[in-house]
Amino acid sequence: TLRLSDGVGHARDDRSLVLTLDNTPPQNLRLSVVGGTRTASGRVLLDLPVEGASEMRITGDIVDDTNTFDWVTYTSTVSLDLLPGDGEKRIEVTLRDRAGNESAPAQVGVFLDTAPPLRPKLTLETTLTNSTKLKVSLAAEEAEQIFVHGDIQPSDVTFQWIPFASPPLSPGEGPGVKVEVELKPGDGRKTIIARFRDVVKNESEAQAEVTLDQTLPEVSSVRSRDVANPADVDGRYRPGSVIEIIITSSEPGLVGNVT
């Protein structure tokens, strides 16, 4: 209560001024990183809802900018740039109210992961085939999903992200899976591509080629000659003669036999 007097007996009481004693700092801060504590991005969004805070000070393994390492006006969310380099990053927040009470520092950790799945590998059971059905072996370290595409037909395991199982492909091999794909029709070289993605969507890739050959070989000509007498090409030979059979074809590399 404030009493005013003029010295000649007049006085008036005034209770309009209210003073509040406040020695309680902001409390119950629920500090978190939006999107989770593992990220592939160097920029994170910090969520820090609390009542009664007027200022905040953010420090840690973060870039020094206008929002960090000094007292700034409190906001319930703030974007921060992590220091470069993969690994665990610490973020610390202290709050202050209008009376100057400071909260105890609150901390949250976030793991920066910019490395894609390691040692991606795509292996085909053969590189030359006459069948459109083909088995593909896929392997990578730290992969969570795979996306198989290329010169192949859509199926339940292609052209979409599917879980990457991790049992050994066979004794002695690392984590991986085997899938069967169907090549697009038409003879020729086909490319099969596999994308590997980890939990924070870093990607790596592997690919391989296979040649589809479903065309029967065409024989252009067949002739014979006596090995002892190459000029003898009339097709008539004496018993015991060694004969060379010469076959020409439009397709190189053919292997055959004579019956």
Low-confidence stretches: 168-172
Helix count, DSSP H or I runs of 4 or more residues: 0
Order of helices and strands: EEEEEEEEEEEEEEEEEEEE
How many E strands? Answer: 20
- The share of residues in extended strands comes to 35-45%
Q: What Rg is obtained from the alpha carbons, in whole angstroms?
A: 39 Å
Query: Major sheet, described briefly?
Result: 5 strands, mixed
Distance, first to last CA? 125 Å
Q: Going across the major beta sheet, what is the strand order?
A: 4-10-9-6-7
Share of residues in helices: under 10%
Envelope shape: rod-shaped
Class inferred from helices and paired strands: mainly beta
Summed over residues and divided by their number, the pLDDT gives a mean of: 85
Task: Kindly list the characteristics that best describe this protein.
5-stranded mixed beta sheet, 259 residues
Give a structural overview.
The strands form six sheets. This protein has a five-stranded mixed sheet with strand order 4-10-9-6-7, with no helix packed on it. A five-stranded mixed sheet has the order 12-18-17-14-15, with no helix packed on it. A three-stranded antiparallel sheet has the order 3-5-8, with no helix packed on it. With 259 residues, it is mainly beta. The radius of gyration is 39 Å and the shape is rod-shaped. Helices cover 0% and strands 45% of the residues. It has no helices and 20 strands.
